[in-house]
């Protein structure tokens, strides 16, 4: 049996409790890792792997990093999806009997890391917890540990829907009980999300939730809080009560649609450029940027609430100077939410407190500017801004104007805040002056010019008088300390008293200052709630200002809402496409969905602008329901409850689903959940399967939506056969995106017009894409053939065999023909590039010519 040294035994004991984390074990000035942790971490962090004797036969693998540079290493590990448990010495090694006590003081995980170079303060970083409920529902609770926000919502559907929602919220970590852990494990493994298990019981203290949170959601909140307490081991006072996100108050946009519409992340590379967020983000603070993301994620679905925002935006648009003044003031405001988080978790620095104070100083100006505006609504908005006087008073009195980053080296607390600290400072700053003064006084008093004040480590400060001058001194005032060959050294009570102060001034001053700073920081905890509420109002103001700025810059108009279902957008634009191109080239298009005509079937060639048109309608609806103006000349909108999209290109590679399967799943989700008040966008449904399959599915879906749901629907298709559906479906209207043929080439007009398109121009687009002329000409020939054949088939006498008819007549075919047919049948068109297709066709032609 292996016997380890006591220290390694202690290590193993601690490690057993943190199996899923790298254990950073503090030894002196280093964090050491042992065994497998060391092997893996040395690999990931590219640090040297060594070994040490641990009492057993084999040496133990080990690697270490200096504690003062640990932050970067921890962040690297955590960003790569690992957890790090920090184990500190929790007693002074000088007084410890035997082995020093060590305890894990914090576990840093992908969902709980709040500071670091890779953390973007402009976005929320949520950690979530999920709990499975009955009827295919989950409760999903999530918290941003840095800002203290906590929310809880229902997710309906299967685990895929849950994972999609978790991803849409950008969570890096999700905590569940064991049972759900097993269910989710596989789906999560392929993603950038860490699945953590929490089987601990919550403490009996009730979880803080806003009053209307349903009871069945509390377990999810409890799992999350238990996990956070277990890992953070610090005060979580800044966590706000869980807010229940009620889907009925919100325009719900499922995760796929969020992605398809590129609301927050671009499909191409996941960046913010080219997204709605990118377009609308002119916020001045990180709090504002985060709030904007949340608003885009959850637009409103309550007419009064939407109108309230629009009213404020309208007032702000009207008053350019006010807007500029408010923006200037907001730029001075730091991230009050993250500052509150740091205060509560005990890692705020003096500089953080100064930033908080400086921010609070701006509030009266902001309030005043809003009040002076004369707009009634802005005036009542100003009343919501809390000046947090007590907090400001405390910070004004205590925190120096420009404190340093370090919290232990002084310079944080203001002069005059604490008498004793002032004395220390006086002593250390003026110590030398004071001594010089004393020397001067003593010389005057005694008349001894050579009298001096000196210092040594044994006796401290002393007055030195040469032996020849001693008779001039009043020795009753002095106490002799040391005799030298030609001088005596004395001390006085006054000198000793000052000496204490001078000598210890700096060290003790720093200690005292640290204590005072901690006290102020603790005292600030009492004010956190108010500061957080203020932050929330400020971030709202920031986003509304951003809306006003963007709306004016891009000539957006205020949308009108009504209680019906009709939707009218006159000369609308896709705001992002418009911003990215020369604005004068963008062709505006209207979208009219009347009560008795609320399904558009859109035809038109590839590249004509069908998707752009559909997306612009969805973006207009979303912008209007977050309270922003919209890109068109006029908009009259219903309050939409849900948006569903099935738009190509965003194939979910990570989930391993085939394109067609994804398409069908998204369609199913839309059809199962949509209501009469929803907006459905279906882009080329069914193109992922054979023509007849696809067409039949598309038609069946349209019929279902028309008869059973009645939602406002935009449907684009390549199947011209579907355009006849308007004969059977009353509310279906054909429109097409116009293109023209000029000198054998297609010219896109990007204009949506009444009626169905007359032809599909697919071959023209292939020509535009640069396919060789020989192929284009051949394709045209084939098309003509197919078209005439179809007419012929309809007239029952087939003049030419189709490829597939030939199958039955296999006896007429040569071996070469069969090889080509075989190859053609097995070709997976969806996975071919045009170049590959061309090569294949050339090969087949060669083969056929041989026969
Ligand atoms: N209204 C418009 N004004 C100007 N340019 C436009 C307009 N609409 C679309 N475009 C341009 O045309 C390009 C193609 O548009 P879009 O992707 O919407 O076509 P599509 O018909 O959906 O094509 P496909 O059927 O191949 O998916 C866009 O990238 C954009 O640059």
TrEMBL record:
It comes from the Bacteria. Pfam families: MutS_I, MutS_II, MutS_III, MutS_IV, MutS_V. Keywords: ATP-binding, DNA damage, DNA repair, DNA-binding, Nucleotide-binding. SMART domains: MUTSac (SM00534), MUTSd (SM00533). This protein is involved in the repair of mismatches in DNA. It is possible that it carries out the mismatch recognition step. This protein has a weak ATPase activity. Belongs to the DNA mismatch repair MutS family. This is DNA mismatch repair protein MutS. It comes from Sporosarcina highlanderae. The lineage of its organism: Bacteria, Bacillati, Bacillota, Bacilli, Bacillales.
């Amino acid at each position: 049996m292996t016997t380890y040294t006591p220290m390694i035994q202690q290590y193993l004991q601690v490690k057993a409790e943190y199996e899923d984390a790298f254990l950073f074990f503090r030894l002196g000035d280093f964090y050491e890792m042992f065994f497998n942790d060391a092997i893996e971490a040395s690999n990931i962090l590219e640090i040297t792997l060594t070994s040490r004797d641990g009492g057993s036969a084999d040496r133990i693998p080990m690697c270490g990093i200096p504690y003062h540079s640990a932050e970067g290493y921890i962040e690297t590990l955590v960003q790569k999806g690992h957890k790090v448990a920090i184990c500190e010495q929790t007693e002074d090694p000088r007084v410890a009997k035997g082995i020093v006590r060590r305890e894990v003081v914090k576990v840093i995980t992908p969902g709980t890391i709040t500071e670091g170079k890779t953390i973007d303060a402009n976005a929320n970083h949520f950690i979530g917890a999920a709990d499975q409920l009955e009827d295919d529902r989950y409760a999903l609770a999530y918290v941003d540990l840095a800002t203290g926000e906590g929310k809880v919502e229902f997710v309906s559907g299967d685990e895929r829907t849950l994972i999609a929602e978790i991803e849409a919220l950008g969570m890096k970590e999700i905590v569940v009980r064991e049972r759900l852990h097993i269910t989710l494990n596989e789906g999560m493994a392929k993603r950038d999300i860490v699945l953590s298990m929490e089987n601990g019981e919550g403490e009996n203290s009730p979880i803080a939730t806003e009053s209307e949170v349903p009871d069945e959601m509390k377990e999810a909140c409890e799992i999350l809080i238990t996990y956070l307490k277990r890992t953070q081991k610090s005060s979580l006072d800044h966590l706000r009560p869980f807010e229940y996100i009620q889907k009925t108050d919100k325009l719900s946009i499922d995760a796929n649609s969020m992605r398809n519409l590129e609301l927050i992340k671009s499909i191409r590379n996941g960046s913010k450029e080219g997204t709605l967020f990118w377009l609308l983000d002119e916020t001045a603070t990180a709090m504002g940027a985060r709030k904007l993301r949340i608003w885009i994620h959850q637009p409103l679905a309550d007419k009064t609430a939407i109108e309230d925002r629009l009213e404020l935006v309208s007032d702000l648009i009207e008053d350019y100077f006010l807007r500029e003044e408010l923006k200037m003031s907001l730029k001075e405001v730091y991230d009050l939410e993250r500052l509150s988080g740091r205060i509560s978790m005990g890692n705020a620095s003096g500089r953080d407190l100064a930033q908080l104070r400086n921010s609070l100083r701006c509030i009266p100006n902001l309030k005043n500017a809003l009040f002076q505006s004369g707009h009634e609504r802005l005036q009542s908005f100003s009343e919501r801004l809390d000046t947090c006087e007590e907090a400001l008073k405390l910070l004004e009195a205590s925190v120096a104007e420009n404190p340093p980053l370090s919290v232990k080296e002084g310079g944080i607390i203001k002069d005059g805040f604490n008498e004793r600290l002032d004395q220390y400072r006086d002593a250390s700053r003026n110590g030398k002056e004071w001594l010089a003064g004393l020397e001067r006084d003593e010389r005057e008093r005694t008349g001894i010019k050579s009298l001096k004040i000196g210092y040594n480590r044994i006796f401290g400060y002393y007055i030195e008088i040469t032996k020849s001058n001693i008779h001039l001194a009043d020795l009753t005032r002095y106490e002799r300390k040391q005799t030298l060959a030609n001088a005596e050294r004395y001390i006085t009570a006054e000198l000793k008293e000052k000496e204490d102060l001078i000598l210890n001034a700096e060290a003790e001053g720093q200690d005292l200052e640290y204590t005072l700073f901690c006290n102020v920081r603790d005292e600030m905890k009492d004010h956190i709630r108010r500061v957080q509420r203020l932050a929330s109002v400020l971030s709202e103001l920031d986003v509304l200002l951003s809306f006003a700025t963007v709306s004016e810059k891009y000539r957006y108009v205020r949308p009108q809402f009504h209680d019906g279902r009709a939707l009218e957008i006159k000369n609308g634009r896709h705001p992002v496409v418009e911003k990215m191109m020369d604005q004068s080239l963008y062709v505006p298009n209207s979208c009219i969905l009347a009560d008795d005509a609320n399904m558009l079937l859109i035809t038109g060639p590839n590249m004509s602008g069908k998707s752009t048109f559909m997306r612009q309608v969805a973006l207009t609806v979303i912008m209007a329901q977050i309270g922003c103006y919209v890109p068109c000349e006029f908009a009259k909108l219903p309050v939409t409850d849900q948006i569903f999209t099935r738009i190509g290109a965003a194939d979910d590679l990570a989930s391993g689903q085939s394109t067609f399967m994804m398409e069908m799943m998204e369609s199913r989700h839309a059809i199962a959940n949509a209501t009469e008040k929803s907006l459905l966008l279906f882009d080329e449904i069914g193109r992922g399967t054979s023509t007849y399959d696809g067409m039949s599915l598309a038609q069946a879906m349209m019929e279902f939506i028309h008869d059973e749901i009645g939602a406002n629907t935009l449907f684009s298709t390549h199947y011209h056969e579907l355009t006849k559906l308007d004969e059977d479906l009353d509310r279906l209207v054909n429109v097409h995106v116009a293109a023209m043929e000029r000198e054998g080439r297609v010219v896109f007009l990007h204009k949506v017009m009444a009626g169905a398109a007359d032809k599909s121009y697919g071959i023209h687009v292939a020509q535009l894409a640069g396919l060789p002329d020989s192929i284009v000409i051949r394709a045209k020939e084939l098309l003509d053939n197919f078209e005439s054949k179809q007419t012929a088939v309809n007239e029952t006498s087939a003049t030419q065999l189709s490829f597939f008819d030939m199958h039955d007549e296999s006896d007429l075919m040569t071996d070469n023909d069969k090889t080509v047919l075989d190859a053609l049948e097995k070709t997976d068109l969806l996975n071919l590039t045009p170049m590959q297709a061309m090569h294949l066709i050339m090969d087949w032609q060669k083969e056929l010519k041989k026969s």
